[in-house]
Design brief:
mainly alpha; disordered N terminus
């Protein structure tokens, strides 16, 4: 009797402000409002793009809408250049400030680890001692490197992520605007450019998507065109060091290589995705990739000239009669040499 009374009275408990009949429509209304706002913003930007194409004084040889897509792409890439320069300066600070300081502190770290092993009474063969010494020293050096990067404001993760993240909002936004402008019926249907028979349809020859993949691959390996002999030798030494670490059973993380391999996989994915989008988006993506390649070449050329100038400066200082005779005038190095020389003097 009481159970039936509760079941019968349960629907009456929902009447009021939070009943499903009044609460669910409020949620749907809020979602619809947000969707309407985004759709209206994209539609407004799309209309503005079409009006801009008609207002710009392009020559008769250049189609108005295709020329506007190229112009908008150039402006968007220029807006993100400061972030790339910011990341490059942080990379220089890591190479020219953090790593030399860490190199100077290595003898002290090795000496401290050796003293700790001696204090702990470590016993083993020479190979086991070297392996144990590296096992204890590497975490200390890595922690010190992170500390120096934080001190000099050049940590690795923001340096790698900020440039692509700064380009993402403009890239996605412009792609959405062009996609909305390409929905039939559209004035873009009447314009052709290069191998595109219409800006509202994809390239029937797949030339633009394939070119997009090729340019993306070239952008990943663009730094190889400006590698100095000194840097190539440094990378070779680093590869040999990593090979020895792997042979010793250590795990070697190379964020730069992981990032480059990810971009190579993304290049293949961009070909497949670009084949499915309208021609206006294909033109925008290809133009952006080409400009990104030229930007990478320009920055790498700047870095190449800078490295060459610094190498000449170091060579001039080393040949000067006032230059110090030792290349590493660190107190720790002299202490290590004296410590090693003691057994031979007895």
């Amino acid at each position: 009797m009481f159970a039936l009374h509760r079941i019968a009275a349960r629907p009456a408990a929902h009447h009021g402000l939070y009943s499903p009949k009044t609460y669910q429509p409020k949620i749907q209304t809020a979602i619809t409002t947000r969707r309407t706002f985004v759709s209206e913003a994209i539609q407004t930007a799309s209309d503005g793009f079409l009006d801009l194409a008609l207002a710009l004084p392009f020559p008769a040889e250049l189609p108005a809408y295709s020329g506007t897509i190229i112009l908008v792409t150039v402006v968007s890439r220029v807006l993100t250049v400061p972030f790339s320069l910011w990341a490059k300066r942080r990379q220089w600070k890591t190479e020219e400030v953090v790593l030399p300081q860490l190199l100077q502190e290595r003898p002290l770290v090795f000496q401290r680890v050796h003293a700790e092993m001696k204090k702990d009474g470590f016993k083993g063969s020479r190979e086991e001692a070297i392996k144990e010494h590296a096992k204890r020293a590497q975490p200390i050096l890595k922690a010190r490197q992170k500390e120096l990067c934080r001190e000099h404001k050049c940590t690795v993760l923001p340096t790698m992520l900020i440039p692509p993240i700064s380009q993402l909002p403009l890239f996605v936004g412009i792609s959405m605007v062009l996609g909305r402008a390409s929905i039939p019926p559209s004035v873009l249907d009447s314009e052709s450019f290069l191998t595109l028979t219409s800006l509202t349809h994809g390239d029937p020859t797949l030339t633009l998507p394939i070119m997009l993949g090729v340019v993306t691959f070239a952008n990943v390996d663009a730094t190889r065109f400006f590698v100095t002999p000194e840097r190539a030798a440094q990378e070779q030494r680093q590869e040999e060091l990593n090979a020895r670490k792997r042979a010793a059973g250590e795990t070697v993380y190379q964020p730069r290589k992981i990032f480059q391999n990810t971009l190579r996989l993304a290049a293949v994915g961009r070909i497949l995705i670009a084949a499915l989008v309208p021609g206006s988006i294909q033109l925008y993506w290809l133009t952006s990739a080409v400009l990104g390649l030229f930007q990478t070449w320009a920055i790498e050329w700047w870095e190449h000239r800078r490295r060459a100038a610094r190498a000449l400066q170091r060579q001039a200082l080393s040949s000067s009669p006032l230059a110090p005779q030792t290349s590493t005038p660190d107190i720790a190095l002299s202490r290590v040499r004296k410590h090693k020389a003691k057994p031979h003097s007895t």
